[in-house]
Amino acid sequence: MEHLVRIKGMVCPRCIQTVKTLFMDLGFTVTGVELGSLTYRTDDEYPRDLTLVREQLEEEGFEVLDDKQSRTIARLKQLVDEWIQQEQARKLTLAAYASDALHQNYHSLSTLFSDTQGLTLERYLISRRVELARQLLAATQDTLADIADRLGYSSSHHFSNQFKRETGMTPSQYRQLVREMPQTA
C-alpha cells in the first residue's frame, strides 16, 4: 500500500535527493518524491512508524507535517513559488490561483498564513520573489528586464524598486557585489 508523507522545508532538487536518501537508508521503499512530499510502499495497509525519520529529517532542517493547517501552509508556500515561476499561473492573481488550487476563499487562507507565519502572504510573496531574483542575478547574465518578466513583475522599474526596498541595494549593485566576491571551490 502507498503512504504519503508531507514534509516542510523541501525547496530544491537537492532537498528531494536528501529526503529520498534518508528514507531509503532507513529501509523505506520510496515510490515517489516531489517538493513537499514523499510516497513509500508497505506490504500492509498501515504506515510505518516515522519517529526515527522525524528526528533525522529535523537534523537536516526538514519537518514532517501532520496537521491540516501545516499542510495548508506548506501548500500555500508551494503555490506562491509556482505562481512566481510559471507564466501560465500568473494569468490569474495569486489570490485566485491559491483559492482555486486549495478550494478555499483567499481571505481565510491569508488569515491562516498571517496567524501562523507572522507575516502576510503578500510579504511572503515579495520575499520569495526577491530571493529568487538574488539567485538569478548571481547565476545568470539575464537582463533586469528579463528577470523582472520571469518573476512576474509588471516592469523592471517596479522590480528594481521592490528589490531595493527589501535589500537596501539595487539589483545592479547586488549583481556587482556578487561578482566581486571571491569564488570558493
From TrEMBL:
Entry keyword Transferase: no
Cell division listed as a keyword: no
Pfam (any one): HTH_18
UniProt xrefs under InterPro entries: HMA_dom_sf, Homeodomain-like_sf, HTH_AraC, HTH_AraC-typ_CS, Tscrpt_reg_AraC-type_HTH
Domain HTH araC/xylS-type: 78-177
GO MF annotations, alphabetized: DNA-binding transcription factor activity; metal ion binding; sequence-specific DNA binding
Keyword annotations of the record: DNA-binding, Transcription, Transcription regulation
Name of the protein in question: Helix-turn-helix transcriptional regulator
